[in-house]
Sequence to fold (196 residues):
Amino acid sequence: MSKLQTIPARAGKAAKVKKGQSIRMVNTHGTQVVDTWAFNSDDLHEFMSMEHTRPHIGHIYPKVGDIMYSNKRRPIITITKDSSPGVHDTIIAACDRYRYKFLGFEGYHDNCTDNLFAGMKELGLTPPECPSPFNVWMNIPVAKDGGIQFLPTVSKPGDELVLRAEMDLIIAFSACPQDILPINNTKPTEAHFEIV
Ligand SMILES: [Zn+2]
Fold:
């Protein structure tokens, strides 16, 4: 039985997924970046890796039909549907408490790294590290000269990205709490997903 689950604004959430099931991610309000991780549920040291995926797919913006690889170079998820314009990021690390210090924020700021650990803790799990995430709906254009920018997402309310699990896995999300740079239109919101 599938049902829509909430990734609360500024927070993390994780779920167990069986091989062959799909994960339907929904950008409910259209403006939210969702950092996404996948771990082999039998061995959390094997996880979806952007660095290992890029040479296989041959580009930095994953699209429908692309297989995402683990750090052991095994297929871990396949992208089967994307109703957004297809602007996602594979090059930026998850935000963390140190990132917000660099951005001039004083004190504790919610962040995707801590959200990964908190989301998996709800399942009684601890990831061995925070891998580089698949930053769904994150708009980081790379210019010909190699320059990058942090721009607002170009997604629309209700956009969906569907991922098929290629092994039994733990999927983990963070509704990115970035409110200093404009990637979430500076107003982090909730997003949703379901396992189908
Ligand atoms: Zn973040």
